[in-house]
Design goal:
Elements (H helix, E strand, L loop, with lengths): L21 H21 L3 H17 L11 H18 L13 H25 L6 H24 L14
Helix pairs in contact: 1-2, 1-4, 3-5, 4-5
Amino acid sequence: MELYRSPYEAYPFLCDDKEDLRCDFELFTDEMASRTGLLRAQVKDPALKAELLWVCELIYHINPTLRTSLTVTEEEKQRLFEAANRLKQECGSRCKLFVLTQGCEAACTAHLLRVQGKGLTRLIYRYCQQGHEVSPMLLDLSNLLSGYFFYLALKLNELEGVDEISYESRNYR
């Protein structure tokens, strides 16, 4: 059976073979960048808004990596690391807890992005397991994005005066 290709196709790679994860990666990063824009609209702090615009752009620079090449620089990776570390330091004791994903709207959006960072990492590993090589920096970036959004969620709750609610798993003690 021949695959129908709509003349209105939104993206030329949408009909790629189901085993080809490059389009999935591009859609995943596009969603992360879009959600980062949503988070930026929810944030009040001007410095964080500016930082989120940079993070959004960084995610879009990651977007074509599997189809072309990684153009993110070591300096940009370091800047993301420093931003995540700064937020971690600012959150202090909030970072020592496993917390429920709740709080202000912006923090909840940041938690969704944290999970998407993990999902992106998983997708990259699946791509590698298919025999493709990727730059180790791409895995560093996806993991750093997840950490950055976690610490940002804690910071956003702190800025809004929302307490974290610790969570203790019945399975992992």
